[in-house]
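quick one before i forget lol
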Amino acid sequence: MWWPFVLEMGVAFFLLVFIVWWTMFHGRKPNPPAQGKPAPRKDDTEQ
């Protein structure tokens, strides 16, 4: 008698995990490599 509730809870848990995984990792692209030398940063402590 309890198996429909357990099955529904399992499906709901799977959907929750899938939605969290999808929103965290879907569409994330690696950073492009830097081309050339980056511009030197100015230090605020130098006058």
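fyi The chain has a mean pLDDT of 81.
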